[in-house]
């Protein structure tokens, strides 16, 4: 890599005042529909092509690094570019500006959700239509992540092994490090290490799996959503500390995009903590799909339904903290480390493992959401749209279309 590729160009970044910088990224946040691809393209066109804050090569290099690390990459790029412009205060304000519109809108939506009589308002039918769309969105995310992360045949084996551990409900904090270790051992031709990782995986399947011990079923029980279902969720079930810990775990493990946050937060909030039901969890993901924000903002909904304002703030802080730290504090040593040693292969193995986890999650969501022909019809239509078209408006319009279909069919 040449110096021109690694050193940011001065461009217009040096002329930014802190208030102007915050306003610029706040505007990006207000227009952040359509997922990370659309968000990154908007940022690239303005700050790289027009104002030349960094060179195009430098932007691509940074994006490759942040795509290899956990967290929402569009938000991480905003933090980094704000740091380029005005140091760490600039990075902090850029990150806050980008996430603030979606965060406030999600808080407002969560407040309405737990107070509205959804059945009386006819909104319950809308949410029934949204859930098959969420299943289609996660299936598309699983396909895209797998296509990117499983570039080698052996990585498919890593993903399949982690998927098997996920079906057995082995904790991901065990299966993902094993995936990274297995890939490092495979790439370095260390058969003893690979055998040790395999034995550890077998031990985890027997001793850490609640399914193998008969404590749980491997398929989640389908929930019947009644018109009289309470929407107060588990309000008060999650303290601010519990919510922050769940958010931080999620923020540290979202390799490959915001959709990979779904299984990790679902494990904490639905499976283990039982702060809210699966139907409510899917509602939160659906609401996030129509907001101008990184999809991971659905964590704010989970926190609010589970524990009110304090838990909502805490879980959001936990989810976004790694993204801020990478851009403000840890970027340079991480960039140096990714170019040498076993860290990059380890992250490749972890990402392959995440692909396996999200594939299982997609199957579980389909099992929960596609309970009748009407739901299957909505999911099929959403799948056709998502696979056929791309662009900023496709995801929110598909989610809104699912809600409209639910209102008409239910």
How would you describe the overall organization of this protein?
The chain has 2 domains: 3-100, no CATH class; 118-151 and 225-409, no CATH class. With 410 residues, it is an all-alpha fold. The longest helix is centred in the first third of the chain and has 43 residues, at 73-115. Helix 2 packs across helix 5 (73-115). The chain is built from 17 helices and no strands. The relative contact order is 0.16. Helices cover 74% and strands 0% of the residues. The chain is globular and about 65 Å long.
What tags apply to this protein structure?
17 helices, globular, mainly alpha
Task: Offer a quick outline of the entry.
The protein has 17 helices and no strands. The chain has 410 residues and is mainly alpha-helical. It folds into 2 domains: 3-100, no CATH class; 118-151 and 225-409, no CATH class.
What number of domains?
2
What Rg, in angstroms, do the CA atoms define? 21 Å
Strand content: under 5%
Mean pLDDT: 83
DSSP helix fraction: over 70%
Q: How many strand segments?
A: 0
Total helical elements: 17
Q: Structural class, from helix and strand content?
A: mainly alpha
Weakly predicted, low-confidence segments: 1-10, 226-233
Shape: globular
Task: State the order of secondary-structure elements, H for helix, E for strand.
Answer: HHHHHHHHHHHHHHHHH
User: How far is the first residue's CA from the last residue's CA?
Assistant: 57 Å
SSE arrangement:
Blueprint: H1 3-6, H2 18-30, H3 35-50, H4 56-68, H5 73-115, H6 118-121, H7 123-149, H8 153-167, H9 172-187, H10 191-207, H11 240-251, H12 261-272, H13 278-288, H14 298-338, H15 343-369, H16 373-388, H17 394-409
């Amino acid at each position: 890599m040449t110096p021109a590729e690694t050193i940011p160009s001065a461009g217009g970044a040096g002329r930014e005042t802190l208030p102007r910088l915050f306003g610029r990224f706040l505007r990006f946040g207000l227009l952040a529909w359509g997922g990370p691809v659309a968000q990154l393209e908007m940022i690239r066109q303005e700050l790289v092509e027009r104002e030349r804050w960094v060179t195009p090569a430098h932007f691509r290099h940074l994006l490759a690094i942040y795509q290899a690390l956990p967290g929402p990459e569009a938000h991480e790029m905003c933090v980094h570019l704000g740091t380029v412009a005005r140091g760490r205060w600039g990075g902090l304000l850029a990150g806050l500006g980008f996430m603030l519109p979606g965060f406030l809108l999600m808080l407002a939506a969560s407040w309405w959700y737990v107070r509205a009589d959804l059945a009386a308002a006819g909104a319950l039918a809308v949410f029934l239509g949204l859930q098959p769309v969420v299943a289609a969105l996660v299936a598309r995310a699983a396909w895209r992540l797998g296509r990117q992360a499983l570039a080698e045949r052996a990585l498919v084996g890593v993903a399949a092994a982690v998927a098997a551990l996920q079906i057995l409900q082995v904790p991901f904090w065990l299966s993902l490090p094993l995936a990274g270790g297995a890939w490092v051992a495979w790439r370095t031709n260390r058969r003893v290490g690979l055998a040790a990782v395999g034995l550890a995986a077998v031990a985890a399947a027997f001793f850490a799996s609640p399914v193998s011990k008969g404590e749980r079923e491997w398929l989640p029980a389908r929930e019947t959503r009644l018109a009289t279902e309470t929407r107060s969720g588990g309000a008060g079930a999650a303290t601010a500390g519990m919510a922050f810990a769940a958010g931080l775990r999620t923020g540290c493990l979202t390799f490959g995009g915001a959709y990979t946050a779904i299984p990790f937060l679902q494990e904490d909030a639905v499976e283990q903590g039982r702060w809210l039901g699966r139907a409510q969890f899917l509602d939160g993901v659906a609401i996030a799909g129509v907001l101008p924000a990184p999809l991971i903002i659905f964590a704010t909904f989970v926190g609010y339904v589970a524990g009110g304002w304090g838990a909502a703030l805490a879980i959001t802080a936990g989810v976004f903290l790694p993204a801020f730290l990478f851009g403000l504090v840890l970027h340079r040593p991480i960039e140096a480390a990714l170019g040498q040693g076993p860290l990059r292969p380890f992250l490749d193995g972890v990402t392959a493992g995440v692909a396996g986890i999200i594939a299982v999650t997609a199957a579980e969501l389909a099992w929960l959401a596609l309970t009748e022909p009407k739901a299957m019809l909505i999911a099929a239509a959403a799948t056709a749209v998502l696979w056929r078209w791309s662009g900023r408006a496709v995801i929110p319009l598909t989610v809104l279309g699912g809600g409209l279909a639910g209102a008409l069919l239910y």
